[in-house]
Records
---
Amino acid sequence: MEISEIRVLMKYEFHRGATTRQAVANINSVFGIQVATNATVARRLKKFRSGDFDLSNEPRGRPKAQVDHDVLKATVEANSRQSARPGLENLKANANAKQWQQILGYLSLTLPFEYTLPIIENGFYWERQCVMRWPSSETWRYDNNWKTMLIERVVQEAIEDFMPESSDIKELEDFLRIFQDYTFRLHIKQLQKLNRKPFIVDLTSEDFDSVLDDFIYKPEVHTSYLDFEMLLGCLTKLKEFSFILTPGSLDSDSYRLSITDFNSLLRSLRKLEMLEKFRCSNGVATNIQLDILSREFITHKFLKELNMSYNFIDDGSCDAIGQLIMSSCPLEVLILRYNKITDDGAITLASALSVNKKLRKLDVSLNWIGNKGGTFLAKVVSKLESLEDIDVSNNKLGPKAGIAFADAVKNSKCIRSLNIAENRFDEAVGQKFSDAVGENSIILHLEIKFCNFSTDDEDFIHRVLIQNRASVTYATYVLEHKRVTASQYII
């Protein structure tokens, strides 16, 4: 027998006005065996009375969640603890996709992050959080990910707005630990400084030993800023850390790291074993401190980008950077923009590059490199097989160095981007670059502004670059040059 036949009989008995017991007896008498029970017939007759005459199978398993959205909204707004983590987990488990989105529209924006972060994925709820705090147009800085934007901005503001003299450092530590399992970037642009005198030790003091012990075992007592070791110890999964304090005055001592502050920063960096990008700029560290940082990264297993731009790095500091270049560190991008590197420093860096097979980008723009250092660097670059992007703009390169870089473009098999803008070249160098570019089909970007090239050479170089870019897709070019516009691709 078919179950559909039995349900047809149930419908027939319903229209006859039979009771449940009468319907069961009549149906079983038709088949001669018990095919209907009181419970089954009663459930079906109840559906008929409600106007539902559908004879198909009823859905099995867990019933769909029935959410009264008015009640939910009132409950959540009245008491945010109703939506703590266990409650959120239950709501998400019992709601379909549409219902869950409606729930996220009602959730209070003041719920603790320790409850919402593990459960709510990127989307509408985090968009609401961000729009409430900052201009929504800034989401592009975070790969259009609202949750990432929320995490990075909230952590940054908590650190930058912390008042060491009036706030409890333990509260900040507990707050940062909420984000310790998330991978994100940290950019610090300002810190509140303690009003402390620099740490000075009187070597003739009778209690020198106790002072020294205090300095070693309790360094945070003498720091002018936050305890970086505690700070970054809560965020050990950071992939990118940028430390750029904005100068408050022309007096570098007013914002530069003291010995104790730098030691705290150094110990904290040792805990960031997964760090891939690090930036220390604006002269917050002395050259000696930057040397120590460079040597510290020699054994780092993941660091791919180091940015020490806008400091006071001179030729002496290039020795430590050269050791880093020659080390086993997987460094791919080195930015030394706006420093005090001259010919000797450039030669030191170039010598280190000659044994390096990993570095893809080198930026030494806005330095004091002249013909001697530039020529040596160009000759080394022409033989490298990994360096694709070089920026030597705004230096003191003359015609001799310009011709050397033209030869590098002609002979190199890997240079795809070269910036030589605003150097002391002449038309003869422009002719050399025209000849070099004409024989190079892989270079895609050559910046030659204010190089005193002739109009014909500039026009020829641009047309060759357009032809080279046409050989690769726009998508490929954009991947190699982040945030490039369509006009930059064509022109």
---
Amino acid sequence: MKTSLRYIFIICFLFLIFGQSTEAQILQTRSEVLSAYGTPFSEGITESGENYLFYKTPVKTKASGEYQQRKVLFFKKFKDGNETCYKWQILEPSSETKHN
């Protein structure tokens, strides 16, 4: 009896974990990111030669009012020619971040 309850609990826990939907960019190809986020965007190359996409999203909060949240997605190009996102960064005003 104890074991069957334990298995039921584990199965329910796994369904909760894997049932969540996320919008991760890490390990997505450039075309997958473009289809998920669409346009408008800016693109460029960093000083170290990495390609990136730059998105601006309008956001309104109590702390900052209206501002443009900026998201930068960095891509590495592999030997097979695919560009894959390996890092992202969100840029916000200091009023939206926690200070230590």
